[in-house]
Amino acid sequence: MTEVTAEDIAAMRADGSLGEFLRHLTGGVPRQASTPVTPKPPVEIPRERPGAWPAGCQRPTLAPPIPDAEVRAAIDDYRAWLQAGRPPASDHCPCVRCRHATGGLA
Fold it and tell me: Mutual orientation of helices 18-26 and 6-15 as an angle, nearest 10°?
């Protein structure tokens, strides 16, 4: 006998095994008893005052000031460019790193 009758289902329901029977038929895995999840307490970060930088850190430092000679040279170069009628700028970079990258300097 391979068919399940209404009496069989009523008997399984009465003894509490109907859920196991249905899981067996569908190939399901029995559920584990769920344990209550307890939330973890928040991590305490020791600081002298709230909102302060963490220990071992500091705020970003300011960039060093540009030397006056470089500022004057840049302003003089800009004035010469203005007096020349704003000619198109060269796309050639004179720095050593760019010259090495483009093969202009061995």
Answer: 120
H/E element, 77: helix 68-83
Predicted structure pTM score: 0.32
**Residue 64 placed within a domain:** no
Q: Which domain holds residue 16?
A: 1-29
CB-CB contact of 53 with 46 (8 Å):
no
Q: Are 1 and 8 in contact (CB under 8 A)?
A: no
Domain count, the chain: 1
Q: Confidence class of residue 101 from pLDDT cuts 50, 70 and 90?
A: low
- Calpha distance 95→76 (Å, rounded): 19
